[in-house]
Amino acid sequence: MPADVALHFDRVRTRGDHKDLRLRIGSHQHRCDSYYLAIDDSATAPGGLGARLARLLEQWGAQIIGLKDAGGTAYLPYDFSDQCTAWLRVSSADGQTAQVQAGWSLIEAWGIVPSSYLATAAKVEDFDPIASARIECTLTELAAHINANRATLAATGP
After folding, report:
1. What pTM was computed for the model?
2. Inter-residue contact 86 to 104 (CB < 8 Å)
3. How many other C-beta atoms lie within 10 A of the C-beta of residue 8?
4. Which of the residues 32, 40, 43, 105 could staple to 79 if both were Cys, CB 3.0 to 4.6 A apart?
């Protein structure tokens, strides 16, 4: 996995559980649950938690590719909770460089389909950033890093 991007999403335990996922961004770490990923019964949800996590990061990667050249802002969910959700806000003014910031929204996870979250991402209007959870990199590096992270999650199995 490219070492120059200080962003990583992983499973700290391979059985679905509370606090079984971890997002690291810069020096910030956040533990979260796989619960909403595990109960996603939509047609877009592949079998097994590793595959569902890989599907989540596949969507992240597609959003990052969509920012190349044109720029803009994308929201990538990583923590699905009953009363709120946590997101990565990826902003690019020039379509080349990216500022990645973790933060919260009051959008409730029970209304989101993790395997197909794009409609909800467009509705994030109350993003509340976590000050210590921020990195800068190029969109190309970020896309490659997310793709490598996706492959690692897929290999964790069910």
Report:
1. 0.95
2. yes
3. 16
4. 32
The answer to whether the CB of 21 falls within 8 A of the CB of 11 is yes
Give mean pLDDT, residues 80-106.
Answer: 97
For 73-82, what is each residue's pLDDT tens digit?
999 999 999 9
DSSP letter, residue 69: T
Interval 123-141: pLDDT, tens: 999 999 999 999 999 999 9
Residue in the block written with tokens 């933060």: 103
**Of 86, 64, 61, residue with least CA distance to 74:** 64
Single-letter residue type at 36? Y
Closest by CA to 44, choosing from 109, 118, 105, is: 118
Amino acid residing at 15: R
